[in-house]
Amino acid sequence: MNTQVDDRAVGSDVEPQSYFGYCRRYLPELFRLEQLVSAHAQHLRVDVVTQVVSENQVLPVYALTLGSRAAEAPVIALVGGVHGVERIGSQILLVFLENLCRRLQWDTGLQEELKHLRLVFLPLMNPVGMAHGWRSNGNGVDLMRNAPLDARDDPAWMVGGQRISHHLPWFRGVEGEPMQPEAKALCALVEQQLFPAVFSLVLDVHSGFGVRDRLWFPYAGSTEPLEHLAELAALSQLLDETHPHHDYLMEPQFDHYICHGDLWDFLYLRSLERPGHIFLPLTLEIGSWLWVKKNPRQLISFSGLFNPLVPHRHQRAMRRHHLLLEFLMRAVRSSSAWLPTGKQQSRFQINAIKDWYG
User: Fold this and answer.
1) What is the mean pLDDT of the chain?
2) What's residue 55's pLDDT?
């Protein structure tokens, strides 16, 4: 695979070494993931959805599944590490997955819940990018600009995706070429595991924007309201009522920029081909600028723009989003109890357009 120089934090002068030695040094998240798989094999169904190559190392992209095997069971997928420099997302998901696996040894309530719910983890989607500290994958492609989908409204210049060069950030890939293997594997996983469910939800964890944690929903490439706006509004209200002191701001992604090739736009549009099934993709955009504001020295580190470098702030990040992840698990499991119908759905739709698009 090609390498690129636009945003790497680790040099390419990697010495030949064993796979585990490579992971210990450059990919501790993957090393921890494989330890977790080994320690909790009795609870996890493990798939390698694709493999990528970096410095003569073959790196797996793992999908880990817990819970019901029934195709129609509600599903929540948790995705991290799409942008390799945003390590914090992968770390949060690994801590949460390990917590669930340990609880399954004694928590009969969780054991019962997972009889009626499936959890799918893709905690490290871009291992080559993470090994090198790049936003892009090993071919210099930004995986969140790689879907074969052009923005319907005017995209932000450069940030919205470009085809000029893989040496520049936000490269979409060469026009007409297939999606990158990581992006293609994600799409296949979602279509196989989530689309058959009557209700499914994705939370894709990112960082690197703003001073507040935001929950973005499609569209990223259009200012049009998405078709399941009422359902999202109901979920937002449920979060507000259940956790009135939470600090998440739910909003359409286009509020901040419009871009080409968004994978969640692409998959959401594909999901509309299955009437009677609801698929809601959310992006958690962790407000990393707050870490920089509290510790300006992070400005001298590229990684510091996306991840907390002070130990106690890192530990706090490992804890603070568990409440949201637990809430989403239960909301997906019990979706029939809060999804709006009839006149209630119309009211949610009208209020959502007023609040989010007015």
Assistant:
1) 93
2) 85
